[in-house]
Write a structure and sequence with these properties.
This protein is about 35% helix and about 20% strand. It is α/β, with parallel strands linked by helices. The protein has a single domain, classed as Bira Bifunctional Protein, Domain 2 (BirA Bifunctional Protein, domain 2). It is globular and about 50 Å long.
């Protein structure tokens, strides 16, 4: 299995989402290989799941912090992308790694993620059962609720992932928070009052964590990137060719930024 491996520089939320979709389209047309892309966000960006109501966002607060907002093609709830490494896996739905539907492929990919974070000396587990309830599904914050096959430490979510399967293929996004205050996301969301906002922050700290919080040291982005690449190689048997975006992918990403992803505000 030969895949393409790409690291792209920190970019806006609209650009990051457009690039992943452009890669998916090119794979569907046979113009690109299955791809693992690692990236970061500048400025920090609030991303919403594809079906999450936009009324969850406190626009004035978001603007006051200088943060972006974007809607993902994948599901799930809101994530504030900052101080993290983000991965995307893109390929045909019948690819050996991605075949069999959402949960089966999700499980395979979680093994690579588990290998990666264990190599960073994190005492992690894979969440076996789906803990989401009807009430939790209403929660606007993704990292507050672990779901099946996600990576946790002592029951606290460490990596949040979501997958979309379309006619063009499969796309899975995931975020590994390296450092920083996870509760910042609550400052960009709508709550009934400040007491409810603080309660949400307290719940989030009790249910999610960062690499630095677990290890007591800051792991660099490049160190985390190398660990993720090795996890996919060692656990899934993928051989990577280090590559970059084609001119056609870059052109299509620019089109998607203007046509689709740059219109949240």
């Amino acid at each position: 299995m030969i895949w393409r491996f790409i690291k792209t520089p920190p970019s806006t939320g609209a650009w990051n989402m457009a690039v992943d979709e452009a890669i998916l389209e090119h794979i569907y047309r046979g113009e690109a290989k299955p791809t693992l892309r690692l990236y970061a966000w500048n400025p920090p960006c609030l991303s919403l799941g594809h079906a999450q109501p936009f009324k969850d966002v406190d626009i004035e607060r978001l603007k006051s912090y200088g943060w972006d907002v974007v809607r993902r093609v994948t599901g799930g709830r809101a994530i504030l992308h900052t101080d993290e490494i983000t991965y995307s896996v893109t390929g045909n739905a019948d690819d050996e790694i991605l075949s069999g539907g959402v949960m089966e492929s999700y499980n395979r990919l979680s093994k690579a993620l588990l290998y990666a974070v264990q190599s960073l000396s994190l005492p992690v587990q894979v969440e076996e059962a789906n803990h989401k309830t009807a009430s939790q599904n209403l929660n606007p914050v993704c990292f507050e609720v672990p779901s099946s096959y996600e990576i946790t430490v002592d029951g606290k979510k460490l990596i949040g992932s979501a997958q979309a399967r379309k006619k063009e293929g499969a796309l899975q996004h995931g975020s590994l928070p390296l450092t920083g205050d996870l509760t910042r996301i609550c400052d960009a969301l709508v709550f009934e009052n400040e007491s409810a906002r603080q309660e949400a922050k307290d719940r989030l700290l009790a249910r999610a964590t960062t690499v630095e919080s677990v290890l007591g040291i800051n792991i660099s982005w490049d160190t985390a990137a190398n660990a993720l690449k090795q996890g996919f190689e060692k656990e899934l048997g993928i051989e990577f060719e280090v590559g970059e975006l084609s001119q056609s992918e870059l052109k299509r990403a620019e089109e998607l930024v203007h046509e689709k992803y740059n219109h949240c505000l």
